[in-house]
């Protein structure tokens, strides 16, 4: 709808107010899918800041409160939004999920699925750098495994940070099968760069 062009003309505080007024954080999921498809068609594209605000308003509460696999509507909306705005999405949502205490099994599965199917290579690298900023946990290991499964060429400094993190935090994971799989994946994928 032409009215959506207002999203490009709002200040960040106005956009947050508009999202609140429209109750986007709690709108039904089928409407969320439609709204995200409208966002994809919007020209010009949203600014980074606007996309980050919308990522937070549309998805943060929904993703953090998952206790079962996301519905197909929520998955479609996430995939749609990520296809165009994966960088602000990672900055907002991935960071929040990684810092959330507790197991977060559904959030972990969702992050793995997004890494495997939706995120652009530069966003995968951003996600990896964000993941390495927090202490490793069992929740985080499958996400790192999914990143390595993409077989992206990592910048040397990011690969060094990954290897250093795995080495430093090894004592905490002496009995972890996920940790062992992750180390094997690193050694297999980056054999020539890891000594």
From TrEMBL:
Q: Output the GO biological process annotations, alphabetical, semicolon-separated.
A: interstrand cross-link repair
Which Gene3D superfamilies does the record cross-reference, listed alphabetically?
Answer: 1.25.40.480
InterPro entries associated with the record: FANCE, Fanconi_anaemia_gr_E_prot_C
Fanconi Anaemia group E protein C-terminal domain location, by residue? 1-194
Q: Which is a Pfam family this sequence falls into?
A: FA_FANCE
Report the GO terms under cellular component.
Answer: Fanconi anaemia nuclear complex
Protein name listed in UniProt: FANCE protein
Native species of this protein? Myiagra hebetior
